[in-house]
Design the sequence.
């Protein structure tokens, strides 16, 4: 008896998904032919390759592969997919640029994948792990990406990203070699920026030039800001979380920006300000504070302010 399991699920959007677990058998495909679904998930599945699924491949719009022991042959037949998850590189490397209808992807990068992947015309959301180039020039070939996450990469600089005029949301995290983020200053369309665990960044000033920014998250960096006066000039900014040390904080200038709903920042060693003082400054700026919270460490405390108006 074949050792496999087919799990059927209805997604929130009403579409049907099937997950496969266990070992390959020709019986699986015959069973799948009788089901109505558009999402296919391989989870902890052992198979020689994906050629056995060619007869149903054109019906699949979402494909997810995680913990699979098998070769990549046959994956190029899933030409109708709009969403792709490849949790780890599958060997041999195949031409992932064959997915011309792809709109979103989560990939662990393989340096043998063709750079033309980034030119896919419909690709809007991309989460990329272990990208091993020193810069982002090939990613910058995209003319369509709106949301980009670059995680656990080897990049030293963000050069190339300034060419993605469509980019609205950027997450860069656990890039331990990243030093230069000056390319950010060319991203006039960027609305959301998240930088985390990039300890070699020495200069954050490029962030100041992001005039369209709505959300900013800076966490676990060693660089600092001289001041936060620029926060008052970002007319669309609603959320700030900043763990970078700040030398000088003009609270009135921050509070006077009435688009800001939640503001968190690290201060600097020896800095003190009372809750009453914050409330008074907010009142002068025409704001009403809903919540004030403080976080350790005591030497360089973090302060969060949330507003009612």
Sequence:
């Amino acid at each position: 008896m074949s050792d496999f399991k087919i799990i059927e699920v209805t997604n929130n959007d009403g579409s049907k998904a099937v997950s496969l677990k266990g070992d390959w058998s020709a019986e699986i495909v015959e069973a799948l032919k009788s089901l109505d679904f558009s999402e296919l998930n391989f989870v902890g599945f052992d198979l020689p390759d994906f050629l056995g699924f060619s007869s149903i491949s054109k019906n699949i719009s979402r494909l997810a592969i995680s913990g699979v022991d098998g070769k990549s042959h046959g994956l190029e037949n899933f030409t109708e997919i709009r969403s792709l998850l490849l949790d780890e590189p599958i060997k041999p490397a195949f031409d992932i640029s064959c997915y011309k209808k792809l709109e979103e992807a989560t990939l662990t990068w393989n340096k043998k994948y063709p750079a033309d992947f980034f030119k896919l015309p419909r690709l809007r959301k991309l989460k990329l792990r272990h990208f091993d180039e020193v810069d982002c020039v090939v990613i910058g070939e995209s003319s369509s990406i709106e949301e980009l996450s670059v995680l656990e990469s080897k990049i030293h600089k963000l050069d190339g990203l300034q060419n993605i005029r469509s980019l609205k949301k950027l997450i860069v995290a656990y890039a331990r070699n990243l030093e230069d983020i000056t390319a950010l200053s060319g991203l006039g369309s960027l609305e959301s920026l998240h930088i985390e665990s990039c300890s070699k960044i020495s200069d954050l000033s490029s962030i100041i030039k992001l005039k369209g920014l709505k959300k900013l998250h800076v966490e676990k960096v060693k660089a600092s800001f001289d001041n936060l006066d620029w926060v008052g000039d970002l007319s669309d900014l609603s959320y700030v979380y900043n763990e970078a040390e700040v030398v000088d904080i003009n609270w009135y200038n921050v509070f006077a920006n009435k688009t800001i709903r939640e503001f968190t920042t690290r201060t600097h060693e020896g800095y003190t300000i009372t809750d009453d003082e914050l409330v008074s400054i907010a009142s002068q700026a025409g704001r009403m504070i809903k919540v004030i919270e403080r976080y350790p460490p005591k030497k360089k405390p973090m302060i969060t302010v949330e507003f009612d108006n």
